[in-house]
Predict the structure of [histone H3]-trimethyl-L-lysine(9) demethylase.
Amino acid sequence: MGSENPSPQNPSCKIMTFHPTLEEFQDFGKYIAYIESQGAHRAGLAKVIPPKEWKPRKSYDDIDSMVIPAPIQQVVTGQSGLFTQYNIQKKPMLVGDYRRLANSEKYCTPRHQDFDDLERKYWKNLTFVSPIYGADISGSLYDADVEEWNIGNLNTLLDMVEHQCGIIIEGVNTPYLYFGMWKTTFAWHTEDMDLYSINYLHFGEPKSWYAIPPEHGKRLERLAKGFFPGSSQGCDAFLRHKMTLISPSILKKYSIPFDRITQEAGEFMITFPYGYHAGFNHGFNCAESTNFATLRWIDYGKMATQCTCRKDTVKISMDVFVRVLQPERYDLWKQGKDNTVLDHMKPTALTSPELDAWNETKNALKAKMLRRANRKRSQPRRHKTQDQKSLVDAMAMDTSLDEVPEKEDQSRVPSLDEEDKPKVSESKEGECRPKVRNPKAKGERKKKQKLPLHELLPPLLLPQPYLPKNEKLQPSPP
């Protein structure tokens, strides 16, 4: 399996790049387990360049009419390598209009010699000209027949959330699209519940990434709390707000290990549990991403910090994962006595006996539901028995009597004008036909008794409206 690998277990925690063959590319979960066996997870971020013959979509010429429902303008304040980013929601716009805006003189990418030169201009001009980001758009650009590395159908452990709990979390176990322009930014953060993530750059200008090894994530948190004490006092997990920007020069100054890499169109980036990352777009582009999980993630999920100050925080119950996949630790975990120690260096296992058993049960249930659906389609419709026909006929005869509508409001006394109007009854075929009868004086009309629904049931008597003594019915006002 092809990779640019500094060493077998990557002790330097450098971002690694992998080149799978088409055959290796077929099984997503297996390839993730492989790159972790090479130490890719120790950097917190890895690049995967798919085989040249693989394409997720035949053409992107038809997406200008797509709607960006809630673009955000990113306003950045700060100085000296420490910044806070605020997002202001704008009106919806079409992708075509967004592309023209991104390429306009105001928002376009500045001239630069290389990526290093562009990076310097990014950090120098971060607080000027607030860019607009088309972020968090629910949907996918993959063609429906693409099976390999389909971001909308990765078939990983995270699917257990939907299968077992029936929960769909947009952008977490469904794909999101991101339309970017020069200087649009994603601030320092780890994924919700410290999950894995996958990001594919469909087309356009590159995207630069910074990553901190998971084994050094606590050092970044301590540094951020020191520089942003107000945010830290308001929320212990304030980095989950995705508002904090710390430049590479500050990280170097305080000896925080990190690495950087540039993602080009047609390339995947994989982030690993508790891997802090940040970055920016070089110009107009489109990316697609979602979260996923492996067996190794379960312990991270159990220990993930939560934002306590916002209602929209993503929180996934770990109960089903521990109960099904770590049954020997479930009771201790429920009692708060599961003293898990995270091992950031240990690669994930591809499977386990518990996971195999769950997959077997899931597949058996799918097959059972499919057989049941096929049986229903193949069975002829059953004819009604004679007794059922008689009952249906009696009910039809009953509903045809227009003198006493079946669902009449007895609490309201009808007006004389209403009584003299033609009434409409519904025929068997569902057609509404007017049924006209000659108006008669109220005293001349004979009260008809409603027929029973069945010959064995007693007749139904109509309740009479209550009128006080010496009071007569008055016509309703016009």
User: Anything to note?
Assistant: The chain is about 25% helix and 20% strand. The domain at 16-372 is CATH 2.60.120.650 (Jelly Rolls). The radius of gyration is 33 Å. The mean pLDDT is 84.
